[in-house]
Design goal:
By secondary structure, the protein is of the alpha+beta class. It has three domains: 2-167, P-loop containing nucleotide triphosphate hydrolases (Rossmann fold), CATH 3.40.50; 180-260, Translation factors (Elongation Factor Tu (Ef-tu), domain 3, Beta Barrel), CATH 2.40.30; 268-354, Elongation Factor Tu (Ef-tu), domain 3, CATH 2.40.30. 17% of the residues lie in helices and 38% in strands. The protein has six helices and 24 strands. The strands form five sheets. Strands 7, 8, 9, 11, 12, 13, 15 and 16 form an eight-stranded antiparallel beta sheet that branches. It has a six-stranded mixed beta sheet with strand order 2-3-1-4-5-6, sandwiched between helices. A six-stranded antiparallel beta barrel has the order 17-22-20-19-23-24. The radius of gyration is 20 Å and the shape is globular. The chain starts with a strand and ends in a 14-residue tail after the last strand.
Amino acid sequence: MYVLGTAGHVDHGKSTLVKALTGIDPDRWAEEKRREMTIDLGFAWLTLPSGRQVSLIDVPGHERFIKNMLAGVGGLDAALLVIAADESLMPQTNEHLAILDLLGVAHAVVALTKSDLVDADWLELVADEVHERLAATSLANAELVAVSARSGAGLDALRRAIDHMLDQTPPRGNGSGAPRLPIDRAFTIGGFGTVVTGTLIDGPLLLGQEVEILPSGLRARVRGLQMHQERVEAAAPGTRLAVNLAGVHHRELRRGDLLTLPETMRPTQLLDVQIRVLAAAPHPLTQNMALDLFIGAAETPCRITPLDSEALAPGSSGWVQLRLASPIAAVHGDRLILRIPSPSITVAGGTVVDPHPPRHRAGEGPRR
């Protein structure tokens, strides 16, 4: 099972395209429908020509909702980058692309939406511009497909392109570890109780298992599992999942919590990470600088300590220690994004090297 996430600027047609591809409207809230703009994460699924099923996460494109977008991209296997042919690259196109690049998402298809609004010469110019922009990113090999959600033109070609792209996308690991489900939604359903959703990683989750919610340490039992609205008794890593929990109230849970097996992980407020600073970052990352950390579905303020230099300049890479304002659960290899809180802008991303390091002083160097 693969999880595919949309990315792109506001009003470039991400949700409309998802609905045209799947028949499912990913906009769940009345406010989203009234404003005709995605505010929070939306979910759907798609059966491709090969017969494989793909989970789709639709993310908001407006700059005010980038934080919501980041809650959905941590578990992606691949991306559907949506660019309106009548506007081409726009600010949130570039920020979403930078985020995917920092997270190491290397497999994608680009949908040039609203292609019915432009002529063939203009479409060719836009395609050339997009190829040029992607060339220096992890999505350099992404196929471009011109589509119109309104007329349906190109939708079959897009499905085939997604299928072909997933043929080249390595499956997740063998699932021999403990399951981890970063929670991106927690709510209640009458007659069932608490339900959480997320993308399962690392290991299988089974009906009846006892689980722990981190960082709170609350215990619960898996009362039910659903994948694409179908009940299952076991779920494999890479599955977009809804978990019905017994023994915990949904108000005790929040986006960013992690569901796992008891006593397999412990929360942390220190991380040693290796990061890359965007060349477009407005200034260097310096000692004690305030940043916002996004990892899994979690978000927390943090302070940075550079470990092998006094500062990390735009375009550079290096080791840093992050001191977190609130505890999170993470493991070696988890990908992360760092943003300046005000003005809110993405500046860096990287990988957790040590989730439980000793405290370092500036310039001390990481524990290798």
